[in-house]
């Protein structure tokens, strides 16, 4: 009888130790929605390249079971091999059926467009199917986003995925590289810059709300459309001419390669008269570097080098 009681006690204690976490679990407030994670997700789908690169840099590895909508063909060397191993669900956004085939227990979006209600991919719709969602905070920021937005999201992912130590290391690496550039540029006057993404009837440019604007500022550039309260926005060519930028940053990505953009500016009656175009002062930067991504310090270093030689 004593032996039976011991066995029953051990079984009871063992059961207590392995019981499923309470249904409440970890609660995360993200872009106006509260997500609950009983345990770290084991099958994650990421719907934009910059979000995918963050997850890989955190060491998510084979828990990342799908990605979509690549913006370029050259991920950073630090994550390139892992990125190539992630199944590509679609060149643009996948259908909700394709997402469900991957059996995710978390779907991450880099842009709010990842969760398109009309396409059946809204956050609410996925959550009704039992799949939590997270969105990079730049897409819902109520005030200008920046490096702090990025490091806060890295900390959030670290907490949700059980990768807190690596999240702290990654944020420290990013902040250290950026601080080094800022120290080199401490006494350098900024250059007025126009960022040209795309567009002919209007110019699609970088506004002051997004992470990219913060990257420019830290690299010794003054975004001539920093007063526009959006991450990216259309502006008129008359406005471009009136603001007389001293340099142009051409944005490069798969859907809008940089090749024709310089020629278009040089043939445009208003853009061609700006000091930047007259002087032929151009920089080129991948779109991913101007979004909330692990490439934030790459953008700062690249722009500082091309604008100031620093």
TrEMBL record:
Residues 43-310 form the Fe/B12 periplasmic-binding domain. Keywords: Signal. Pfam families: Peripla_BP_2. Residues 1-19 form the signal peptide. InterPro entries: ABC_Transporter_SBP, ABC_transptr_periplasmic_BD. SUPFAM superfamilies: Helical backbone' metal receptor (SSF53807). Belongs to the bacterial solute-binding protein 8 family. This is ABC transporter substrate-binding protein. The lineage of its organism: Bacteria, Bacillati, Actinomycetota, Actinomycetes, Pseudonocardiales.
């Amino acid at each position: 009888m004593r032996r039976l009681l011991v066995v029953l006690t051990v079984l009871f204690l063992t059961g207590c130790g392995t019981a499923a976490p309470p249904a409440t679990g970890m609660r995360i407030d993200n872009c106006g929605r509260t997500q609950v994670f009983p345990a770290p997700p084991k099958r994650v789908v990421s719907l934009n390249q910059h979000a995918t690169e963050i997850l890989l840099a955190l060491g998510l590895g084979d828990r990342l079971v799908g990605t979509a909508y690549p913006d370029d063909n050259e991920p950073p060397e630090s994550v390139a091999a892992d990125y190539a191993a992630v199944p590509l669900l679609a060149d643009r956004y996948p259908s909700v059926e394709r997402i469900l085939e991957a059996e995710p227990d978390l779907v991450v979006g880099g842009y709010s467009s990842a969760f398109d209600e009309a396409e059946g991919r809204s956050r609410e719709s996925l959550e009704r199917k039992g799949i939590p969602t997270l969105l990079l905070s730049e897409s819902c920021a109520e005030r200008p986003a920046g490096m702090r937005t990025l490091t806060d999201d890295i900390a959030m992912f670290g907490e949700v995925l059980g990768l807190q130590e690596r999240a702290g290391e990654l944020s420290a690496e990013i902040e250290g590289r950026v601080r080094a550039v800022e120290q080199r540029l401490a006494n350098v006057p900024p250059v007025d810059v126009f960022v040209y993404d795309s567009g002919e009837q209007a110019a699609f440019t970088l506004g002051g709300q997004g992470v990219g604007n913060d990257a420019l500022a830290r690299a010794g550039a003054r975004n001539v459309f920093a007063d526009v309260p959006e991450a990216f926005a259309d502006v008129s060519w008359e406005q471009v001419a009136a603001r007389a930028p001293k340099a142009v940053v051409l944005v490069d990505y798969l859907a809008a390669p940089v090749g024709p953009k310089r020629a278009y500016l040089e043939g445009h009656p208003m853009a061609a008269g700006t000091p930047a175009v007259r002087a032929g002062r151009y920089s080129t930067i991948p779109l991913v570097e101007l979004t909330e991504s692990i490439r934030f310090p790459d953008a700062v270093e690249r722009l500082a080098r091309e604008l100031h030689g620093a």
